[in-house]
UniProtKB/TrEMBL annotation:
<keyword id="KW-0418">Kinase</keyword>
<keyword id="KW-0597">Phosphoprotein</keyword>
<keyword id="KW-0479">Metal-binding</keyword>
<feature type="binding site">
    <location>
        <position position="85"/>
    </location>
    <ligand>
        <name>ATP</name>
    </ligand>
</feature>
<keyword id="KW-0963">Cytoplasm</keyword>
<keyword id="KW-0808">Transferase</keyword>
<feature type="binding site">
    <location>
        <position position="102"/>
    </location>
    <ligand>
        <name>ATP</name>
    </ligand>
</feature>
<dbReference type="Pfam" id="PF00334">
    <property type="entry name" value="NDK"/>
</dbReference>
<feature type="modified residue" description="Phosphothreonine">
    <location>
        <position position="91"/>
    </location>
</feature>
<feature type="binding site">
    <location>
        <position position="91"/>
    </location>
    <ligand>
        <name>ATP</name>
    </ligand>
</feature>
<keyword id="KW-0067">ATP-binding</keyword>
<comment type="similarity">
    <text>Belongs to the NDK family.</text>
</comment>
<comment type="function">
    <text>Major role in the synthesis of nucleoside triphosphates other than ATP. The ATP gamma phosphate is transferred to the NDP beta phosphate via a ping-pong mechanism, using a phosphorylated active-site intermediate.</text>
</comment>
<protein>
    <recommendedName>
        <fullName>Nucleoside diphosphate kinase</fullName>
        <ecNumber>2.7.4.6</ecNumber>
    </recommendedName>
</protein>
<dbReference type="InterPro" id="IPR036850">
    <property type="entry name" value="NDK-like_dom_sf"/>
</dbReference>
<feature type="binding site">
    <location>
        <position position="9"/>
    </location>
    <ligand>
        <name>ATP</name>
    </ligand>
</feature>
<feature type="binding site">
    <location>
        <position position="57"/>
    </location>
    <ligand>
        <name>ATP</name>
    </ligand>
</feature>
Amino acid sequence: MEKTFLMVKPDGVQRNLIGEIVSRFEKKGFQLVGAKLMQIPTELAEEHYGEHKERPFFGELVEFITSGPVFAMVWQGENVIATARHMMGATNPKDAAPGTIRGEYGVIVGKNIIHGSDSSESAEREIGLFFNGEGLVEYKRDVNNWI
Ligand code: RTP
Ligand code: MG
């Protein structure tokens, strides 16, 4: 089953949005298979956002994502990678549709509440970086028969 890596960023944790965000993916019908509250070390942040190393905002991005605890999660379900990105909304909250997570709760691009893997390659890479093959739980859920 397809898996993706989602993370409530430090602003989302500070604003008490963990429950709201978890609830949205639960209600959609996706299944939580791993989660942890953690403070990201600088080296992990730099690796996670490595594709943006040359961008002018890289320093700020790493500083922000390491500035407080994040809630790291792995979710699974059919097409979960693309669907989660739709549910998150556009990167810049000013362009994110109402009803999406960033559209409802975000204001500026540097504090956009949630991260989500953007492809199957990045999902695999990010799940490996944050969970390192440990802490994922496979379990049957009766409700899956109804989704
Ligand atoms: P994320 O990786 O955090 O899920 O966000 P994303 O795919 O929607 O956007 P991406 O292009 O990967 O950018 C990563 C994060 O960098 C910050 N950013 N700042 N100042 C800027 O112009 C700028 N552009 C991007 C955002 O916080 C974005 O989530
Ligand atoms: Mg990205």
